[in-house]
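Appendix B, record 7
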Amino acid sequence: LFAKLPESKVRGYTASKFSMHAPGGRCENCKGEGVIYDPLGYEESECPVCLGKRFRDEVLEIRFKSLSIADILDMEIGSAYKLFTNMKPFAEKLKPLVDTGLDYLRLGQTTAHLSGGERARLRLSITLPRAKAPNTLFLVDEPARGLHQKDIQQLLGLIRGLCNAGHTVIAIEHAQNR
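Structure tokens (predicted):
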């Protein structure tokens, strides 16, 4: 998206310029992470060069609807879905995340800080678009772990919808009695 903007074309920026995983546009001090880790890799602090934005200043000057790539990556998935509703490729990728109740996560958030339930729902959201034909088996491990009751109800609604569409869902929850 950002590489196709007129300002990017004028500057000769390609898609790799907007990648946190490739040199060129990312902050090289933090390698696009936005944070610096201590030598043991445990503690993290905001990168003093990019101030957590992950990209070089000239890349952040490119705007889509007044938003830089860092602004978009800092958006909650639900807000990004609303922003990209009329852009089918983006909306199709974000909708399963909204449907599984992960709309509060940020687009650029790493998976390292997700709970077990969030990871299970993330895996489920990745497989949802693949379930075009009926009779798909979904096996999810602890999808409700650590969820608020409201989120559990949303997840149950999604599971009921999958079952009503002819799919089979097996959800495993591990209850511990203390």
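Remarks on this record: Residues 161 and 167 are 9 Å apart (CA to CA). The mean pLDDT is 88.
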